[in-house]
From TrEMBL, chains A, B:
It holds the Pfam family Peripla_BP_3. One of its GO terms (molecular function) is DNA binding. InterPro entries: HTH_LacI, LacI/GalR-like_sensor, Lambda_DNA-bd_dom_sf, Peripla_BP_I. Signal peptide: none annotated. Gene3D superfamilies: 3.40.50.2300, lambda repressor-like DNA-binding domains. This is LacI family DNA-binding transcriptional regulator. The keyword Transcription regulation applies. Keywords: DNA-binding, Transcription, Transcription regulation.
Amino acid sequence: MVDQVREPRADGAQSARVARATMKDVAALAGVGIKTVSRVVNGERHVSEDTRVAVERAIAQLRFQRNASAASLRQGQSATIGLIVEDISEPTQSSIARAVERVALDEGTLLFTASSSDDPDRERAMTLSLISRRVDGLIVIPSPFDHGFLQPEMTAGLPIVFADRPPIGLTADTVLADNRGGAQTGTAHLIEAGHRRIAFIGDPESVHTGAERLAGYRDALADAGIPYDPKVVFLGAPSIERSEAAIAAALDVDVPATALFTGNSLNTLATLRAPSFERSALDHVAFDDFELADLLWRPLTVVAQDPSAMGEAAARLVFDRLRGEPGAARRVTLPTRLIVRNHR
Amino acid sequence: MVDQVREPRADGAQSARVARATMKDVAALAGVGIKTVSRVVNGERHVSEDTRVAVERAIAQLRFQRNASAASLRQGQSATIGLIVEDISEPTQSSIARAVERVALDEGTLLFTASSSDDPDRERAMTLSLISRRVDGLIVIPSPFDHGFLQPEMTAGLPIVFADRPPIGLTADTVLADNRGGAQTGTAHLIEAGHRRIAFIGDPESVHTGAERLAGYRDALADAGIPYDPKVVFLGAPSIERSEAAIAAALDVDVPATALFTGNSLNTLATLRAPSFERSALDHVAFDDFELADLLWRPLTVVAQDPSAMGEAAARLVFDRLRGEPGAARRVTLPTRLIVRNHR
DNA sequence: TGCTCGACCGACATCGTTGTCGGCGGCAAT
DNA sequence: ATTGCCGCCGACAACGATGTCGGTCGAGCA
């Protein structure tokens, strides 16, 4: 392991930095004007075959690469979009990133990614930093705080699309999963299995997805004529301790729970690891799918989102707007899918 | 499912792109020269308190944001680095990305990410595209093909660091896991448990990590005086079918295998899902850790890498070089960790 | 008083590219 | 022969920032 931190040095030593070739160099070598080089590089018309070949030869010889900063400055476009997620190492979000990347590549665009850690200040700073780089568009998984500061950018024509959660204080294109419907379906699946007492462990209602999924859970109960009972509903930040306490409480009430719905991946993980969960024999359905969920000691039935579809939809929206697609802010809702996994 | 949200877009079509404020505008409003605005924006000295305040007021009023393309053009630096991975949605690689991002943020630098899909043409195109954007540095998880085309960039002073696998046809800073040592440790763990006949399922030797890990497996066997037998070693592209066949073959030889070492995550997953694996009762150690590996029907003992440390080391190397750190190409090797998980 | 010095500030050139425009030569229509 | 048009091409300005350099002003010093 190498870890020598050394003083920054005022240049010098190995500074044999070779200057890069510019269009001027290429033009000189090919014996043409720089505008002609530009035309060749950008595939414009009105260049004779002969000069095109000559220019291409010079480009290859000098290993010329167009300076995108200069082009961006001149054109006001950067062939670049930005993606702000909460944490790129989280599987759902990296899948979104992958899909965005794929669409961007098709459009000849490069992607900036940045993780906000759900810190609004950081998110804001990163967003503005991306904008100062003149990204052509922005996709944001917003932290749950006001995004009004983006209004001027949007009216200035910058396409901004929100994914996974809607923005607060701003009306903009948004791509969401069908959180409510998914939670309803998952809960209904437990009801169909005969359960009448179903506990719920999820995010606080201040989180958009938390509120929506709780609503879906209540929808399913209502549909089945089962009264909603806050005594078996536990909302808060995910932790093994909280899940453990929730399970204990859900089993200790007047009519003990026989099943459990966990509302998001972190709460699901915490619950799976809670010591008393395995003993509890609670039937279980979770929101969000996992790699290996089929290979757990008891395979996990889940309501799965499609992060790839979400990323793709968001990216397409950005590029549609970039092409001038007019119209009011759109809201795209993506379906979820119940994946039933039975005992092994 | 697309529906519309209430308010229309503030600017009819989007044609009404409002021009962004430039330093010229700020200078005019503040009644100073543009160079003074530049000084304020960049925190240079030799600006009186009064003018600084006036300029800052004008900046706020006009919502001025420095155009990074212009600055980059002028300065030859972009405060931007690029990361090329094989697939950003793969957990190990997104963890690397997260760590790189963290270091970059500390350095006031933004991160481009791009997935090569292990396609050398794509990787090359993406790399050159990043270079044309004048990234200040590059981190690459290289596809197993020649990277000699990067030599001119490196001699031109662009810091390039390779992660996870060494580049081919190029000498450059590289950060690797201790693949050989890790595989040796993992295999030794099985030997200590009494196994003398251990099958190996891994990547082909053409993949660097595949070759190294196979070597580590052989090291452990040699240390224990167990002969290496190709009949229980299966190298190739991961698939459930291949794992299934491998298990059948390993059990069907003269002396059947009693344990299995899987050499990378994809082969591990394929093997876990192979129908006859569960029945086989093979003791099992895998290279690469997973979320949920502790909650499988049989908890999985693994040799874990530290992707976060890898990303951090690679990023630090880039910034060290950027600060002018001289010297020959370095190779950093990160330790692995055996995580023993016993029956539940 | 005269001179130096340093803090403060702005005009100007410059980075590398692309949009504008005008020149040139050849060809078809008049 | 003249006109007009079109394809090809290059000079030049502009994009928005920063480095250079020189100017102004007040303080300090002999």
